[in-house]
Q: What sequence folds into this?
C-alpha cells in the first residue's frame, strides 16, 4: 500500500520526515526558489492559478500526476492531521503507519480533520459575513446547471453549522479522482462567472475558500465513511485578532481583510 500525503507550501519549512509526507511547492510559477522535491508547475498543472486557487494547485497536480499512490491526501506546511490530542505538536502529527492501519481496516474511508463549528452561523451566513455571499450564490447556480443531483446536498450543507475545512483529506486514488473531476469542473465554470481582476490578493483567493465548502457538499451527497483524525497547527493562531475580526464581520458588517 503506497500512501502519499502532499504538504502544500509556498515557502521553505521544517517539514515532517515521515516518508508518507511529500512537500509540494505551490505557486511555483511565480517563484524562483526551489525547496521541495515536487513543484506544482511540472507535468499537467494549473500552477498559474495559485493566486486564486490556493492549495488547490497542489490538489490538481497530485490528481493528474501521481499515478503510483494507492491513497493520497493534502495538508499544509503549518497544519497537519493529528494522531494524538496532547503533547508536542510535531509528535502529534499523524504517522504513515497510523494512516496505513486506518485504510487496512476501512479501505474506502476518507480521513478528515475535526469539523470546525461556527456556533451562531450557518456555513452560508459565515461566508456571507466574512466574504461575499455572491460567491456561494453563483456556485449554487453552477451546481444546479452542471450536476443538479448535488443541489439538495448543497442546500443542506449551507444550512449546517459545522464543516470539514482547510481542504484537508486522505483517501484512495479512485475517490480522489472522482472528487477532483467533480470539483474542478465546477470551479472552472465558477471562474468564468466571477471576475477577480480588480480584487486584492486576499479576496481573490475565493476559489480555494469555496472549495472547502464544496468538499462537504461532495461528502454529504455520496455518504462516504469518514474517519476523523483531528489536526494540529504548528504555528500560533492570533486568537485575539481572529475573534475580533469575526465579531466585526458578524455584527458590524466588516469583511475579513486577512487570514489569522
A:
Amino acid at each position: 500500500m503506497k500512501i502519499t500525503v502532499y504538504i502544500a507550501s509556498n515557502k521553505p519549512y521544517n517539514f515532517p520526515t515521515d516518508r508518507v509526507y511529500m512537500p509540494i511547492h505551490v505557486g511555483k510559477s511565480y517563484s524562483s526558489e526551489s525547496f521541495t522535491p515536487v513543484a506544482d508547475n511540472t507535468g499537467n498543472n494549473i500552477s498559474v492559478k495559485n493566486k486564486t486557487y490556493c492549495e488547490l494547485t497542489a490538489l490538481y497536480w497530485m490528481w493528474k500526476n501521481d499515478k503510483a499512490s494507492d491513497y493520497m491526501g493534502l495538508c499544509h506546511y503549518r497544519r497537519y492531521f493529528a494522531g494524538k490530542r496532547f503533547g508536542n505538536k510535531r509528535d502529534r502529527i499523524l504517522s504513515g503507519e497510523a494512516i496505513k492501519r486506518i485504510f487496512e481496516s476501512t479501505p474506502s474511508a476518507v480521513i478528515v480533520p475535526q469539523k470546525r463549528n461556527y456556533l451562531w452561523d450557518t456555513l452560508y451566513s459565515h461566508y456571507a459575513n466574512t466574504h461575499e455571499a455572491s460567491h456561494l450564490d453563483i456556485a449554487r447556480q453552477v451546481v444546479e446547471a452542471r450536476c443538479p443531483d448535488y443541489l439538495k446536498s448543497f442546500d443542506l450543507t449551507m444550512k449546517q453549522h459545522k464543516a470539514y475545512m482547510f481542504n484537508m483529506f486522505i483517501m484512495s486514488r479512485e475517490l480522489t479522482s472522482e472528487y477532483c473531476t467533480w470539483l474542478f469542473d465546477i470551479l472552472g465554470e465558477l471562474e468564468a462567472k466571477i471576475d477577480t481582476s480588480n480584487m486584492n490578493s486576499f479576496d481573490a483567493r475565493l476559489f480555494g475558500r469555496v472549495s472547502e465548502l464544496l468538499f462537504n457538499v461532495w461528502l454529504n451527497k455520496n455518504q462516504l465513511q469518514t474517519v476523523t483524525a483531528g489536526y494540529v497547527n504548528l504555528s500560533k493562531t492570533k486568537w485575539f485578532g481572529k475573534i475580533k475580526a469575526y465579531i466585526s464581520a458578524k455584527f458590524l458588517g466588516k469583511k475579513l481583510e486577512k487570514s489569522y
